[in-house]
Automatic annotation (TrEMBL):
UniProt similarity note: Belongs to the SUA5 family.
E.C. numbers: 2.7.7.87
This protein's record includes keyword Amino-acid biosynthesis: no
Alphabetical UniProt keywords: ATP-binding, Coiled coil, Cytoplasm, Nucleotide-binding, Nucleotidyltransferase, Transferase, tRNA processing
Domain YrdC-like, residue spans: 39-223
Summary of the function given for this chain in its UniProt record: Required for the formation of a threonylcarbamoyl group on adenosine at position 37 (t(6)A37) in tRNAs that read codons beginning with adenine.
Annotated coiled-coil segments of the chain: 242-276
Pfam families: Sua5_C, Sua5_yciO_yrdC
Main location, first listed in the record: cytoplasm
PANTHER family in the record: SUA5 (PTHR17490), THREONYLCARBAMOYL-AMP SYNTHASE (PTHR17490:SF16)
Name listed for the protein in its UniProt record: Threonylcarbamoyl-AMP synthase
Length: 411
């Protein structure tokens, strides 16, 4: 901090807040401690990483909260800043496929050729980083990716370090697609935010783990399952791989005290919970207000709930909800894509959820049900599966049924 006072200057912070005034929400009880890094200062960002500091940087998927992947204390500070349990492993970002700090299987070059740089994270056994235990959440395997973003690549090159980075949001909150989103979650902490443009894809990378002849998709993301299948199907070296995807939703046990203890120091790591597909919690990507998926299919209908549409933000696809729900408040309405373009919807998804939680008087978000999407209408429908997954998690799986101006909880 002492080294780069300009990053924390009142003028700089004020300029940032003014630039993003519609996206920023400040809590009067919190102080601002973050720094803002301009694009012509990436050499400073690189130095900060060497000093063990946290640097939030843009990628083509979402913004990442980065630290030197060789520095255990810096990595622990990521978990502390996010309030993230240590059972959730981090992705390591690199800029050279020949220097990935893990065992390099012979098929890796073929994957790298097809999908890197890009939203493709591959989980491999790590033997070369002393920090593997904490990075991998005790699994011994680390997710590696080369991001497809000019700023991220330049930072990786300048720092010449592997950068460990989860999405730059507080744990369970919506992943950030803009510097302002990162600011909202971390301005009261010692985090340095690179001020760059909105992320191009809008959702995270796809995480895969090779096991024998199978590629297990551990997390759906902006690289569609169909695209992976199609590309590896055409590759002589990779066509023997079969893709496996199983929908796994884990409930988070919310125990503040336990988390506090766990984050205190590395010695307290409890490895009872090491998992094959860690980090796939059900409550994820959640707004600060209740979210519900609206269905028009009458299955397992429970009790009626009292929802005031004036207090409801609606996030639509095409105009499906607008055409069916009567009396929606147009000032609290957004469609992820008027033209049924799933790629556009993916780009807008987190951005719209973040917008929704900032709306005055909003008590809940009502989301379009992508389970019922009619594929013939949709462009880029290969992206639907990932959107469905993120929406399901952001509503913690809760659906409501709408009929004749009334809402009912589904069981
Ligand atoms: O697009 C992205 O992947 C962004 C940008 C910053 O690169 N990063 C990101 O990281 O989304 P994070 O930590 O928010 O999510 C990573 C998830 C974990 O929660 C877990 O589900 C899975 O990826 N993952 C990472 N490393 C893994 C490992 N070694 N084994 C199993 N799953 C892993
Ligand atoms: Mg995340």
């Amino acid at each position: 901090m002492e080294n780069f006072p300009q990053l924390y200057s009142k003028e700089r912070i004020q300029q940032f807040i003014t630039k993003y005034k519609d996206l920023i929400q400040l809590d009067p009880l919190k102080e601002i401690h973050c720094g803002i890094i301009h694009l012509d200062e990436l050499h400073i960002a690189a130095q900060l990483l060497h000093q063990g500091e946290l640097v939030a940087f843009p990628t083509e998927t979402v913004y990442g909260l980065g630290a030197n992947a060789k520095n255990a204390q810096a990595i622990l500070n990521i978990f502390k800043a996010k309030r993230r349990p240590l059972s959730d492993p981090l992705i390591v970002h690199v800029h050279d496929k020949n220097n990935i700090y893990t065992d390099k299987p012979d098929f890796l070059d073929s994957f790298a050729e097809l999908f890197w740089p890009g939203p493709f994270t591959i989980v491999l056994k790590s033997t070369q980083l002393e920090t593997t235990e904490i990075l991998s959440a005790g699994t011994g395997s680390i997710g590696i990716r080369i991001p497809n973003h000019k700023v991220a690549l330049e930072l990786l090159e300048k720092a010449n370090l592997p950068i460990a980075a989860p999405s730059a949001n507080l744990f369970t909150h919506i992943s950030p697609t803009s510097a302002a989103h990162v600011f909202n979650d971390f301005y009261d902490q010692r985090v340095h935010i690179i001020d760059a443009d909105r992320s191009d894809n809008g959702i995270e990378s796809t995480v895969i783990k090779p096991l024998g002849n199978e590629l297990h998709i551990l997390r759906l993301g902006s690289l569609a399952k169909e695209t992976i299948m199609q590309k590896i199907g055409q590759s002589v070296q990779l066509k023997h791989f079969a893709i496996k995807y199983e929908n796994k939703y884990m409930q988070i046990e919310e125990n503040e005290e336990e988390l506090e203890k766990e984050l205190e120091n590395l010695q307290n790591l409890d490895r009872k919970n090491s998992m094959e597909a860690p980090g796939q919690f059900l409550k994820h990507y959640s707004a600060r207000i209740n979210s519900f998926i609206v269905t028009f299919q009458q299955i397992n209908i429970g009790q009626e709930i009292d929802l005031d549409l004036k207090e409801s933000v609606i996030i639509d696809f095409g105009q499906e909800l607008r055409n069916r729900i009567v009396n929606i408040d147009e000032t609290k309405y957004k469609s992820l894509s008027i033209n049924y373009d799933a790629k556009e919807a993916m780009f807008n998804l987190y951005d719209s959820l973040r917008w929704a939680e900032l709306q005055q008087g909003a008590k809940q978000i009502l989301l379009y049900d992508f389970d019922t999407v009619i594929n013939q209408k949709v462009q880029h429908d290969e992206n639907i599966l990932s959107i469905q997954d993120k929406i399901f998690r952001s509503a913690s799986g809760q659906k409501i049924y709408y009929k004749d101006n009334k809402f009912y909880l589904c069981q």
